[in-house]
């Protein structure tokens, strides 16, 4: 009888504890909402910035830039609020109030985080700080620079540059709907990478809100902080409001081309030779390899960009890479900004198509690798066979060449360390329709396992902008958060991980800005 009473008391205690926690969470959320309303201090601003689940537009706003529908299922955790700041001070208010009331923040720019971490968390109440209203772009052609707000997409940035000048460009990614915030803060590469390096290499200033709610620029934040947000993943350190970037020169005429092969034997020989040429040929030439299915057949495509006219391109390729079999009818001359539209596979549309925001319609899973030595043709053949499997109907394997400027920048100059010594990077992608996902995700895992002996080791590297939670995430085990984070942090950042941790410890010791794979402080302490 006494034992039964004891267990009854324990049960009552647990129930009261749970009720207290629920009540505390509701109280924190109410306090957070009140704090924001008071700080914004204008009913019109409040209605534009604060969106609760009771708002009729809440669901549409939540879904507006979810680029991976894998994280938009009914059971996916939803935010308690969505904030859409219209002024930098609104971001300050969001940070200060969330810190005061213990509400977790996820910052969303374009919604392209491969694992949905810019708009989902599974272990705590959270708000989304959606920066889509902060998207202004100010171009200074004379000084060859741009201030671009974090909520803009790289397509919008390209479009504004293209309208102003046909011989200035910016070296960033291929997909125009990617937000500049995540793209720049993770490194950011595209068709100009061999000539000009990463997007992060051309960031010359930034404005951000730190963990204390202060707005800082480069001169106030210091060089270590500025170094960290240019490749270390800005969401680990602050909310970047805007970026000042330097533009680069491009010729008035560039040439795009594509060669396609459906024969495994022919494609394998070209890919094999590509591995010895693609990182060493002229820096003006960028040639990718794409393997995927087309009408139930596997095909290899070799899309490319040459910074010059077609006749010069043909002489170069016929001399250095005749195996490609490039002919004049495979090529098309155009302006650089038109080449951006072409590479985004947007057809013959005018360049203003780059400014359109669209959502991803297919769920996907991705992984990445870096390659330091050419793989044998047998490995290419194995990839070809994998793409013939039923669950690979919408899969893609993308080989992106390095070399050129990528090898000239030291691996410590920005947090992105995968520079000299890498021939190319591989991205393994699989897309699918519907709710079923396991077999498609397992396909990516099998291909990734197949490649283990042919890719960089010690550590096996990965690219933070192609985030992969399979590498690990915080689970709160007996190790310190630093020890947990190191297990995947060195794969993204190699030796730069330790410096990133030192910066994090200095600027955000209480670990206010965090997610499942964020940079940890050496020791989390509460700072008021």
TrEMBL record:
Keyword Disulfide bond listed? The answer is yes
**Location relative to the cell:** Secreted, Cell wall
Gene Ontology molecular function: FAD binding; oxidoreductase activity
Domain FAD-binding PCMH-type span(s) in chain numbering: 75-250
The signal sequence is: 1-24
Q: What is its main location?
A: secreted
Report the cofactors.
Answer: FAD
Instruction: List the InterPro entries hit by this protein, alphabetically.
Output: BBE (IPR012951), FAD-bd_PCMH (IPR016166), FAD-bd_PCMH-like_sf (IPR036318), FAD-bd_PCMH_sub1 (IPR016167), FAD-bd_PCMH_sub2 (IPR016169), Oxid_FAD_bind_N (IPR006094)
Keywords on record: Cell wall, Disulfide bond, FAD, Flavoprotein, Glycoprotein, Nucleotide-binding, Oxidoreductase, Secreted, Signal
Presence of the UniProt keyword Oxidoreductase in the record: yes
Q: Of which family is this protein a member?
A: Belongs to the oxygen-dependent FAD-linked oxidoreductase family.
Task: Quote the protein name from its UniProt record.
Answer: FAD-binding PCMH-type domain-containing protein
Query: From which organism does this entry originate?
Result: Capsella rubella
């Amino acid at each position: 009888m006494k034992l039964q009473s004891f267990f009854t008391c324990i049960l009552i205690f647990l129930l009261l504890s749970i009720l207290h926690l629920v009540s505390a969470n509701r109280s924190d959320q109410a306090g957070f909402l009140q704090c924001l309303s008071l700080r914004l201090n204008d009913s019109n601003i409040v209605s534009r910035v604060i969106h609760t689940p009771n708002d009729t537009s809440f669901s549409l706003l939540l879904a507006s830039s979810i680029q991976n529908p894998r994280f938009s299922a009914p059971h996916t955790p939803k935010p308690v609020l969505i904030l859409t700041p219209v002024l930098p001070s609104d971001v300050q208010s969001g940070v200060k109030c969330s810190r005061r009331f213990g509400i977790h923040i996820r910052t969303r720019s374009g919604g392209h985080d491969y694992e949905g971490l810019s708009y989902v968390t599974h272990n705590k109440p959270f708000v989304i700080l959606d920066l889509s209203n902060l998207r202004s772009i100010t171009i200074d052609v004379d000084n060859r620079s741009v201030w671009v707000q974090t909520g803009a997409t790289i397509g919008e940035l390209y479009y504004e540059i293209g309208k102003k000048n046909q011989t200035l460009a910016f070296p960033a990614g291929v997909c125009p709907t990617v937000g500049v915030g995540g793209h720049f803060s993770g490194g950011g590469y595209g068709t100009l990478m061999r000539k000009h390096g990463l997007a992060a290499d051309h960031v010359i200033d930034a404005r951000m809100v730190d963990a204390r709610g202060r707005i800082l620029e480069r001169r106030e934040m210091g060089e270590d902080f500025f170094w960290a947000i240019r490749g270390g993943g800005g969401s680990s350190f602050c909310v970047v409001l805007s970026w000042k970037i330097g533009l680069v020169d491009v010729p008035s005429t560039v040439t795009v081309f594509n060669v396609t092969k459906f024969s495994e034997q022919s494609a394998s020989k070209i890919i094999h030779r590509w591995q010895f040429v693609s990182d060493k040929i002229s820096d003006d030439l960028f040639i990718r390899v794409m393997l995927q299915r087309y009408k139930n057949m596997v095909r290899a495509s070799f899309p490319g960009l040459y910074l010059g006219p077609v006749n010069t391109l043909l002489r170069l390729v016929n001399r250095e890479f005749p195996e490609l079999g490039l002919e004049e009818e495979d090529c098309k001359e155009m302006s650089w900004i038109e080449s951006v539209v072409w590479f985004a596979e947007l057809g013959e549309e005018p360049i203003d198509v780059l400014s359109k925001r669209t959502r991803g319609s297919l769920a996907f899973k991705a992984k990445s690798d870096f390659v330091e030595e050419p793989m044998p043709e047998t490995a290419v053949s194995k990839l070809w066979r994998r793409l013939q499997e039923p669950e690979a109907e919408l899969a893609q394997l993308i080989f992106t060449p390095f070399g050129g400027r990528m090898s000239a920048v030291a691996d410590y100059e920005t947090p992105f360390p995968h520079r000299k010594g890498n021939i190319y990077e591989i991205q393994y992608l699989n897309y699918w329709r519907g709710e079923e996902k396991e077999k498609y995700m397992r396909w990516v895992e099998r291909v990734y396992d197949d490649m283990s002996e042919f890719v960089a080791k010690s550590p096996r590297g990965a690219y933070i902008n192609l985030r992969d939670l399979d590498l690990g995430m915080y689970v709160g085990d007996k190790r310190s958060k630093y020890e947990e984070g190191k297990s995947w942090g060195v794969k993204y950042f190699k030796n730069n991980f330790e410096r990133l941790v030192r910066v994090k410890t200095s600027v955000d010791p209480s670990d206010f800005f965090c997610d499942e794979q964020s940079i940890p402080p050496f020791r989390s302490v509460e700072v008021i």
